[in-house]
Every structure is written in structure tokens, then in C-alpha cells.
Write the C-alpha cells for this entry.
Amino acid sequence: MARRTRILLSKIGLDGHDRGIKILAKKMSDAGIEVVYLGLFQTVESVVATAVQEGVDCLGISILDGGQVLIAEDLMGELKGQHLDHIRVFFGGIIPERDRFALREMGVKEVFGPGTPIEKIIDAVQEG
């Protein structure tokens, strides 16, 4: 039997809006993805440490406060510095189109905006 995909979902920084990521966590779990929900007000270091501890395949970071480029720079740098480039990173939330290219250039696998069907997100995570 194949191992199920494991994803760590979290919010980095001071953004306190978590309704969407909680709904996504439930839908992903229902779809057979193992979900580790780290929650609000995390640091890049706490997310990466938990990713290592939990042996996740992916990180899902929700951003609604406009700090996506700085967070991505720090997160992708930390992953690379710890030789964790194999962990796929997804960003979701209110992310302007002008930042999406920059995020992908940094190594973010996919950026999901408001209104993205949950099934599309689940498919991208399960694609491996």
C-alpha cells in the first residue's frame, strides 16, 4: 500500500485569519491526505522544524496579510539551508498576481488565490 501524502498547513507571522485553512485541512483529510495543522502565529523556523519532525511531503502556507514575498524568501532559504528542497511548498490566500511569478521563481510549487476550487488544491498536493 502506498504511503499517503503528508502536508503541514500553517500560517506564518501575525495573520490571524484561519477559517479558510481550517476548512482546507478538513477537506484534505477527507480526501485521504495526512494533515498536520500547526496553526496561527508561527515562525519560519517552527514550520521547518515541525516539517522535519513530522516527515511531511509538502507545506501549505496561508497568507492574507501581504507578507508573502518576505515569508517565501525566508522559508525557501531555510528549507534549502537544511537540504529540504524535496519538500513541495504551496502558498494560498490573497496574493497579488504581481507576486506569484516571484514566488514561483523562489521555488514555491503553486500559488492558490481566493476562489480556487478545493479539488484543484487537493489534486496539486496529491500529484507528488
Summary: The helical segments are 19-30, 44-54, 68-81, 97-106, 118-126. The first helix runs from residue 19 to 30. Strands lie at 6-12, 34-42, 58-63, 88-93, 110-112. The radius of gyration is 13 Å.
